[in-house]
């Protein structure tokens, strides 16, 4: 079961949904849905990015509104992700999470760190972002020449093993603040990354 959450940032790709997907708009992400003729099942947030006409159109399409006050402890995107989890979804694809505000962008990238029960991916055009936690493995489809960057979070990411990358890691560590893991290259598909301990961002740039 996959939930697709559309945020209010830059949307740099077509939106391809499966019939089983649950579409959730995080506040202004509903504007992206309206522009692309999509009907979100839920619209979540304080609605400060939508005007009355847009709200009326979404309501006429059957969207359910989950409203929050403007003074709250979570961003609209975090609330939308939590809604997906509360509805029983274990996989969440986030679109439109990156944008001009660095604070929002960094916070959005960090969202998966506190949700071990969810498999969360962020997609932006030809780039995708995944977060690995201790003991996890990820397979990264792509093609030879695609760029794969591994960036540790919250200290050292240790015991990293990779497969089908030009510069392999064989049980080695990456340290926070070091750029050693940036701009590796996929030699065949799929590449894979295993993490022993820590948190590791896996970013793929499909060329």
Number of domains: 2
What CATH architecture of the largest domain do you see?
Answer: 3-Layer(aba) Sandwich
SSE order, one letter for each helix or strand: EEHEHEHEHEEEEEEEE
Helix content percent band: 10-25%
Q: Report the span from N to C terminus.
A: 29 Å
User: What share of the residues does DSSP label as strand, in percent?
Assistant: 35-45%
**The named CATH superfamily of the largest domain:** Thiamin pyrophosphokinase, catalytic domain
Shape verdict: elongated
Overall mean confidence score, pLDDT: 95
Tally of contiguous helical segments: 4
- Structural class computed from helices and strand pairing: alpha/beta
Taking pLDDT < 50 over at least 5 consecutive residues as the criterion, the unreliable ranges are none
Give your account of this protein's structure.
The protein has 207 residues and is of the alpha/beta class. It folds into 2 domains: 2-125, Thiamin pyrophosphokinase, catalytic domain (Rossmann fold); 130-205, Sandwich (Jelly Rolls), CATH 2.60.120.320. Helices cover 17% and strands 37% of the residues. It has helices at 29-35, 52-60, 76-86, 102-110, and strands at 2-6, 22-26, 42-45, 64-67, 91-95, 119-124, 127-133, 137-140, 147-163, 170-174, 184-185, 191-194, 197-205. Strands 1, 2, 3, 4, 5, 6, 7, 8, 9, 10, 11, 12 and 13 form a 13-stranded mixed sheet that branches. Strand 9 and strand 10 form a beta hairpin. It is elongated. It starts with a strand and ends with a strand. The mean pLDDT is 95.
